[in-house]
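Narrative of accomplishments. A recurring question from our advisory board has been how the design workflow behaves on a single, concrete structure rather than in aggregate. To address it, we present the structure tokens for one chain from the evaluation set, followed by the sequence designed for it. No filtering or post-editing was applied between the two.
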């Protein structure tokens, strides 16, 4: 029931955030399966994908969907979605703690330049590192009111080259393998 309330809150405020979260959850479920995670971790990972952005329901719609770059003040507001998400998740006693960890850390970067806590390297939870990869991939390949979607190859090139220090490259290679196997399975019919 906590799940439904949170997801309905996001969907009611900004449908894109809800669709993005569903997409992230599906990719994370497949990614976790590929990584050989146990069922408990798979459940936490998938649920973390569904709920990682619920704090966006507290961000003004105009900021979420602004055409063009956010200014510094707007970006400060946008960054608050992480702490708001954690607050919402923590208020739900029925949700496993790992979901909150994924939500709290999915914008952290391996080089320490992420937010909200500037965590570095292995200080970032493994499931959160997986979520960061999928969140970035989804954001780059999603159509938004202010941008066209990137093709997967272009998004992956950016993730390997331009932001390589931000995300776990060994995990990214496994995610690429997953995408390739899905593409091959789709091509085989």
């Amino acid at each position: 029931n906590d799940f439904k309330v949170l997801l309905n809150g996001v969907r009611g405020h900004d449908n894109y955030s809800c669709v993005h979260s569903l997409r992230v959850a599906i990719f994370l479920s497949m990614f976790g399966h590929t990584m050989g995670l146990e069922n408990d971790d798979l459940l936490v990972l998938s649920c973390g994908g569904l709920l990682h952005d619920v704090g966006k329901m507290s961000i003004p719609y105009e900021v979420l969907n602004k055409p063009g770059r956010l200014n510094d003040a707007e970006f400060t507001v946008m960054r608050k979605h992480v702490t708001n998400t954690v607050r919402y998740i923590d208020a739900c006693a029925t949700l496993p703690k790992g979901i909150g960890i994924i939500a709290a850390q999915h914008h952290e970067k391996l080089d320490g330049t992420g937010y909200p806590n500037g965590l570095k390297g292995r200080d970032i939870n493994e499931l959160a590192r997986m979520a960061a990869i999928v969140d970035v991939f989804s954001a780059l390949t999603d159509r938004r009111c202010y941008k066209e979607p990137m093709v997967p190859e272009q998004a992956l090139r950016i993730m390997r080259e331009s932001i390589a220090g931000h995300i776990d490259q060994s995990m990214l290679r496994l995610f690429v393998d997953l995408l390739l196997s899905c593409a091959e399975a789709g091509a085989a019919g």
